């Protein structure tokens, strides 16, 4: 059901929630409310993510489908009134999954459902070896040198804890990033792990692993949760478990690209607000949740503002970043790093950046840069956002996401419109990341939150760099 701004506002008053008075210009707040309400009545976000995922399907970093999708998205931006639309390319090591399989072999053979980890090398035939299980990456790191010679290292840290903010993901993504290198250092011939996901489906979650000295040292795989349970039970029963692994994954030289389009500011066009998301996806699904929806949200929010009858003072810049999902032999920052290197000293003209890369479910909180809490700006934002269910957070935003991280490191303040991630890691990096998982009403609420907040920022002279508390360095 579509959220009604007026109904939620009435509910707020009925509950005794007094929206605080603000010193922010009343006309700017009123316009932000109008933009918010206009966003609740449009469907460009759903149109964009539908076309993107239907026309191009999966968009692995550096693939032809990512490149074709970028060219199409640039055309989509032009058709919808964006200016200065351009595609900026950068070199990339791409990765193709190929074919993969895994099974328990021996007296009681069983098939296992696995997905090779991104940028993992192939097995060059079949690897067959005994499995040694560990409860954590730390336990694997503590194994004696050479103790896994000729073995397969298996880390099962248990099921991911489901949390609204996705906080349970980090401990498992660390295993995916560092596990292959840790296993190789102990002499292992391959690495497997329980998928980094919160679901119980027999559907593995892929994701990139990490390069060490220019290479991923050995083949790595993620097991679906039920297969991880099965393997751990067998080992607990005292069985010697032997596994056969096969993968034809390989890397190749290619290019990726950022797609950039502006809604130029009316009076201060050199003051730039970045709206970020990423174009690439993993190859198992069609990348609707991660992150076609993010591009849809930011593009639609900017378009609503452009069509509001008056352009704001500052420029809105939508960036569909390339190759967010994958590691590289050297730490280039991928699309985010390429953008910052390309703008050079003009980074000083970037006044704030935000990123939408956590699915399509509702926004529930706003985190502002340091110094933004309990200010006139936050009170104005609360007045605009509370009626659609978005609360102010006292927690400052320091880093942003992967794509805008390089801007944050260069000193650009960042904000987050925090989304409900309760089900995000059921779908993330799996074959289930498809268009039907996008809830149109929640997608529209995202657009409304972005549009209302962005109008407040873009048509004001608020300076988040100056708000930073004394003694705090630029991040």
In short:
This protein is an alpha/beta fold and 475 residues long. The chain has 14 helices and 16 strands.
Characteristic terms for this protein:
alpha/beta; 475 residues; disordered N terminus; 22% strand; eight-stranded mixed sheet; 14 helices
Structure overview:
- A hairpin with a 4-residue loop joins strand 2 and strand 3.
- This protein has 14 helices and 16 strands.
- The model is unreliable at about 1-25 (pLDDT under 50).
- It is an alpha/beta fold and about 475 residues long.
- Helix content is about 35%, strand content about 20%.
- Helix 10 (about 375-385) runs antiparallel to helix 13 (about 440-460).
- The strands form 2 sheets. It has an 8-stranded mixed beta sheet, sandwiched between helices. An 8-stranded mixed beta sheet has the order 3-2-9-5-6-7-8-4, with helices on both faces.
Give the proportion of residues in helices.
25-40%
* Spatial ordering of strands, largest sheet: 1-10-12-11-13-16-14-15
Q: What proportion of the residues form beta strands (DSSP E)? A: 15-25%
Major β-sheet profile:
8 strands, mixed
Computed CA radius of gyration, to the nearest angstrom = 23 Å
Mean pLDDT: 93
Q: Outline the low-pLDDT stretches.
A: 1-23
Helices and strands: which structural class? alpha/beta
Q: Counting H and I runs of at least 4 residues, what is the number of helices?
A: 14
Q: What is the tally of beta strands?
A: 16
Distance between the termini: 40 Å
What's the order of the H and E elements? HHHHEEEEEHEHEEHEEEHEHEEHEHEHHH
- Principal-axis shape equals elongated
